[in-house]
Amino acid sequence: MAKKLKVLFATSETHPLIKTGGLADVSGALPAALNGLDLDVRILIPGYTRVLEQMELENALKVDLLYTPGGAVRLLEGKMPGQGFPVYVVDHAGLYHRDGGPYQGAAGHEWADNALRFGTLSYVANLLSEQASPLDWQPDILHCNDWQTGLAPAYLHYSATPRARTVITIHNLAYQGVFDIKLVDSLWLPPEAVREIEGVEFHDQLSFLKAGLRFADSITTVSPTYAREIQDPFFGCGLEGLLQHRFDRLEGILNGIDTADWDPRADAHLVKNYTARTLSNGVENKRALQQELGLAQHPDVMLLGVISRLADQKGLDLFADIVPELLNDGVQICLLGSGDPVLEGRFSEFAHKHLGQFATYIGYNERLAHRMEAGIDAFIMPSRYEPCGLNQMYSMAYGTPPIVRHTGGLADSVVDAGSLENMQSDATGFVFEHADAGALLHAIRRAQAFYADLDKWHKIQRNGMACDFSWNASAAHYVELYEELLRS
After folding, report:
1. N or C: which terminus of the chain carries fewer CB neighbours within 10 A?
2. Spatial contact of 4 and 38, defined as CB atoms under 8 Å apart
3. Its pTM surpasses 0.85
């Protein structure tokens, strides 16, 4: 019998245990898909209070791994809810047992000790990936994710013991984990890690992500287009030179989505389930959404929706600039999200002034997100850059054509409809090139023209619903990458 390939998946968040964004979705779905391909996959995650509350920890004291001024770092073991594969929890009361989110306090400020919190996570990943691991299980592959685990490949590089091969996935290059260089002394790194020009130093500071990109055996991003974009100064965030140098180790693999959780045929959040053959059932979901959000009950009025973090990256300032013109057209708009206070204020003001036509929910609501994907007519995603994006895939799965900018994973997943007179036969949405309000408005205008032609609109809906955005193909691609690393 062939030996199972063993993978330790190190991440700062994973759905359903803890989530702030798309990283959690990927960190829940990809390990599950790999497990389904008969790999022995285990997740490593910090022991946040919310994680500990949700897990049945089988070994309350698995092993004391290392000591910090705040006490011992322990490793606990449990099972992934709904999946059953192992999850290792890095437990340290002083570092992780606190109110607030994984990265910020309740007031929205970054935790002052994030370098130590995620340096510890990285160091534990390193310990478990060495031949001298304290466990009786050692991975063949350590798969790191974003800056929070970026120091792990550096620790392994400077270790003298045999180790696992390493992969780091960039989910968003803009977040790099940059800290005071003096912290190197308290993060278990050797002096040469700073002295070497290709070490962990980045413009006189310590960069967790730069360390991962420099020392990992392979680098992946979450879409092919983003892998090309980040080698350009406009998208490279100062790391384009390193990425160009390591281009032969860089690969883009498009994320998938959890097709069990996001399935209009069986989604328990919906008023009425439906398929590509029963699109008319979606009318009831639109009516219910309009009622829930206080929008006027007009089934034939085009309803545009946004589900997003409100940030400059997402291009929603461009959308805010054209909202008045869209409202003059008579369309309805609903928005679910939070973030930039200025954008929150602008969208809340639209909702206040245009009752029955514009609805805003500031915050996040998983149930409402599902109901919006099923109830809106078109999804707005005008990102300035988008490493992959998941909501455009959720939208297509729900027969909701997305309107997106041509960047990153949006370019790789959405096929533009073209013009009403010359429609692209495999169209799944509407794509525009330039990050400006006029280009976005023109794309929405094209969508409005198609919406008025039900036959063509239904064609776009069905094309999107026929796409396979499951993790099957992406997970298989990762298996090929892992196996190639073990052969090299």
Report:
1. N
2. yes
3. yes
Number of domains, the chain: 2
> pLDDT tens, 336-382?
999 999 999 999 999 999 999 999 999 989 999 999 999 999 999 99
Rounded Cα distance, 125 and 119, in Å: 10
Q: Are 37 and 471 in contact (CB under 8 A)?
A: no
Q: Are strands 86-91 and 71-79 parallel, antiparallel or unpaired?
A: antiparallel
Is cis: bond before 16, omega within 30 of 0?
yes
CA angle 19, 23, 27 (to 5 degrees): 90
Structure tokens at 50: 């919310």
Domain harbouring 84, CATH code: 3.40.50.2000
Joined tokens for residue 114: 């994030």
CB atoms within 10 A of CB 404: 30
Residue 285 lies in a domain: yes
Q: Do 414 and 477 lie in a common domain? A: no
- Label the pairing between strands 71-79 and 59-68: antiparallel
